Amino acid sequence: MRCAILGDIHGNLQALEAVIADAREYGCVEFYCLGDVVGYNANPSECVDIVRNLPGICVMGNHDEAAAGSRPLSGFSTDAAISMEWTREQLDSEQKEWLGALRLQRQIRKFTFVHATLDSPSSWGYIRTLHEAEMSIALQSTPLCFIGHTHVPRAFGKGVGEIQLFDETNEGVHLPQDGKILINAGSVGQSRDGDWRAAYLIHDEASEGLWLRRIEYDVEGAAQAVLAAGLPEKLATRLRTGS
């Protein structure tokens, strides 16, 4: 069985639709979302409805938590806070209730899913280095743990350090049969690694293969939707540059 792992969609409908179509073309039958369905971009309502109807599960991200409630946005950057205030106005009560009911962490078969870290998932810390990864790996009870939050695809293995992920169509990583690996799926909706294309992962349970997919989508349409909504111009620029 193949499953798709999606992180940080952030209300980018154009990217989400392109990724789902690609995943289905490659035979994915389950979809696991790593949180932050909303925030930054112009279609939060549509993205929530799509994700909650996909076969699979979704965990809570910090933007999901903020969108579901009304607490002050002091921990957000100026642009993120502006987009979050706007996002709250776009979502109906049922969508907010769904976001607010998401769990911080889920475990299915040999997978663990969390948006940020395993040691303190509600604090929304970042895993950017091997040292930070090892802190979560120490608490990992499954062979594979998938995370998001940084918007940068990376993988770390216990005792082996960082593992290279490939985005070539026919080249993936064959995961070791023992040990524990923590993997960041990158971002569907707001890439930050210098590549504007949407990022997501495919995992094949039969072959223990893992593929990083980079998908072209209507990025200009997504950027124009951000501007048409009156959201900060910087958010549109980030989509085009992937940074």
How are the elements arranged and paired?
Elements: E1 2-6, H1 13-25, E2 28-33, H2 44-52, E3 56-58, H3 62-68, H4 78-90, H5 93-101, E4 105-108, E5 111-114, H6 130-137, E6 144-147, E7 154-157, E8 161-163, E9 173-174, E10 181-184, E11 198-204, E12 209-215, H7 219-228, H8 233-241
Parallel strand pairs: 1-2, 2-3, 5-6, 6-10
Antiparallel strand pairs: 1-11, 4-5, 7-8, 7-10, 9-12, 11-12
Q: Which keywords apply here?
A:
alpha/beta; 22% strand; single chain; 6-stranded mixed beta sheet; 243 residues; globular; Purple Acid Phosphatase, chain A, domain 2
The class by helix and strand makeup works out as alpha/beta
Low-confidence stretches: none
In CATH, the architecture is: 4-Layer Sandwich
Percent helix range: 25-40%
Count the beta strands: 12
User: Number of DSSP helices?
Assistant: 8
Radius of gyration: 17 Å
CATH fold node name: Purple Acid Phosphatase, chain A, domain 2
Counting structural domains, the number is 1
Instruction: Report the span from N to C terminus.
Output: 33 Å
Task: Supply the CATH superfamily name.
Answer: Metallo-dependent phosphatases
Mean pLDDT: 94
